[in-house]
Amino acid sequence: MKKFLKNAISLVLAFGMVFSEPLPAYSAVVVDKGSKGHQGEIIETIEAEELPDLQAQGEELTVSEALSSEPESEEAVEKEPESSEEEAALQPEKTEGSSRAYGYRAGSEEEAKVSKNAEEEESLSEELPAKYDLRDHGLSTSVKDQDPFGTCWSFGTMAASESNSIKNGLVGSDVDFAERHLAYYLFRNYNYLEDGETRQGVDDPLGNTAGDFAVYEYEDKSVYDPGLNTVKAMFYLLGWRGPANEADYPYKNSKEMDTEKLPRDTENIYGKSLVHLQNFGVINPKKQPEEVKKALQKYGVLAMSYYDEDDSYGDKGSYYCTKDVDSNHTVAVIGWDDNYVFGKNKKGEQPKNNGAWIIKNSWGTEEKCLDNGYMYISYENATLLNAVYCNYEKKDNYDNNYFYSGGVNNQSYKKANSFANIYEIKKGNEILKACGIALKDTDVNYELQIYKNPTDATDPESGEKMLSEPLTGKTKFEGYYTVNLNEPLIFAKGDKVAVVFYLSKGDSIKSTEGVGIYVDNSSDVNLAEDTEQYYTKEERCQSLYSSKTKNDKGNYDGEWNDFIDIKPHPDTARIHAYTVNTTWGL
Questions:
Q1: Whose CB among 164, 277, 433, 564 lies 3.0–4.6 Å from 300's, allowing a Cys bridge?
Q2: What gap in Å lies between CA 210 and CA 194, rounded to an integer?
Q3: Strand locations in 158-219, DSSP E?
Q4: pLDDT band at 83 (very low <50, low <70, confident <90, very high)
Q5: How many Å apart are CA 420 and CA 450, to the nearest integer?
Q6: Strands (DSSP E) found in 203-311
Q7: What is residue 194's three-state secondary structure?
Q8: Is the pLDDT reported for residue 398 higher than 60?
């Protein structure tokens, strides 16, 4: 009996549930069953020269109480974490005295940088109103309930996606996108091969991503509970893997979803998109709140995360938290009220100034701390993280979406300033209409050039230059940007297309200063840990990088390197190419 008790106590401690004080949520947290959470990020398709504005806690139990019948020993008691990485592996389940649970996982997500380009721009033609609520404009859908799973990130992403799709006239106001479709297939985008052990990702329609998938597969764990953030969700949706219709993949609010296996094939994963995500952006809500307000007016609902705890609530959903901790929950920002007056929260704390973000949560309408499913978070809340907006287009905007980055790992690469992906045309005669790139940097100047059939597979610039002049533009926020071409470029089946972005932070590329981009890669996997795993498969001469300088003739000097040689895990630049099929001859 003593041995059993020791092992049980050790297991509880290992999951971070035995502490003298409630355990805060950390970045890269692991979410147990019953947790909830969500988060998101967003942008818009941009013409050349016109880039848009982008950018739980366990039941309290002290160690002394847990060990009252047993002497402390190395066998029975595991040490408290000594580093932030060890702390990040611990995840509280629920807030004491509440049914609330979460699901936000930061991963490698960092606080968004401030855009100076946005600050320098002229303000809106009209002053921002003191209050703005997307419900008043029919641009916010109803309150949903994520119970009992850790899927807040999916609910936040879908809330933003629904709102933007309504605003862009792509769907009706009764739209309901399937949170379950996103949450399930993001971690079940693979099948087992005949050996029953080797996994193979479900390939995209063009056959470029078979080795790319995410996994959360542990005994007695739900596929809906690993937790995630909106940036990763947006990268998944950039592959046109949803959003799907709620009626086809209903969220049942019960454990029945755990036992029901959905079919894993290209049609269910890639063939159900009602609209196509083309851009998303990330804005810092604490440092650039005015830009968040502008984005709400321009794109609709945004997804944002914060740290949730019961003691930081006041009356009728008012929320003010002063803790210096990481976020643990994602919600949908649907507006603001500069004159919102806060009373004191349960800890007796009160913001110095009026003003709140109007929030739609994903805990249904019955949660006692909320106002019929809504809440009001102070502008001064210490834990606000990354408001994400998105921009969708109709699902027939392009026929083909070329990309190699089928995984969702949101790593960054900052040691180069020029990046290229080389694609082979698969369907027949195709017109290249647009290209996109994911930037982990603000205020980036870009030049886009297309090269046809490079003669040297290691040099994307060795082919025929296709654009008479490179397309140029300037970005604002971190995120993904789609750039429309201004002249038709026709390619035949089997042609190689090199998409090359030259990036800089100044007026032009005058040095080899690096510019941050998002890359996809595999994660360091420790199967002994209860966490998600990311796998990608790279091929040589698909994704390349260089540190370039521009010479007096306007050409770029610098050697190209292959991302496959990056250690310990090869990278893939998140660069897409969009084409339409054509019967035009060459």
A1: 164
A2: 16
A3: 190-192, 199-201, 213-215
A4: very low
A5: 10
A6: 213-215, 275-283, 302-306
A7: coil
A8: yes
